[in-house]
Specification:
Elements lengths: L10 H8 L3 H9 L7 E3 L2 E3 L2 H15 L4 H8 L5 H12 L8 E3 L1 H8 L5 H10 L2 E3 L5 E3 L2 H12 L4 H36 L7 H42 L5
Length: 247
Amino acid sequence: MADVTDDSLTIDELARRVGMTARNVRAHQSRGLIAPPRLEGRTGYYGPGHVARLERIRDLQDQGFNLEAIRRLLAAGDSPDEALDFMRALAVPFGDEQPQIVDGPAMLERWGDQMTPELVEQVVAQGFIRPREDGRFEIRSPRLERAAQELGELGVPFEVAVGITQTLRDHSEAVAEEFVELFLENIWRPFEARGEPQEEWPRVRDALDRLRPLAGESLLAVFGLMMTDAVERAFQRELDRMDPGSA
């Protein structure tokens, strides 16, 4: 059998080269993600461009991008690298924490009898812990878990701590949506309306990078003020309760 050169790969050879199945290659071609092959008679042949394109699609899928996002990235015209950098930046989690992977027994050991199956389901539903296919769990915020543990040391039952995290989640979700809408309304949509000019991609990326710490710092600053006010009001109520005559 003759050697197969890079510009004369059959679909099966192309699939093996990029670690996909021929069915995957056909599906990507039908979606317009790769160009049609060069035809000789009834046989299609693929070249280096197809290999590079499919490897890029595979890499993007490995990074968690769906096919629609990949299609938009590949259709970015003169600025695919800038668009790709921006999409990668979107995929980076906000904050500086690294998730922690633990198995079921280890997670139960941390909390003892307080970690009931019902509470596990509740925390999973909140999105703070994710079950993995290998049976282990991903603790998305070890910092948040440590806070719950310290509350336990103060005498707060784990069930109550879980309820507090749900409250935090609800309010934080609303704040997060406000910041996202702020970015979309004032930065992304005007940029998109101008046709996503290549020279403006760095500015949009910079705005996203600056939004990350700005959102967290703003939320923490406001929370600090509100916590101070709440403590003052609570102690005043306690003082008034202890000394009814002062009211």
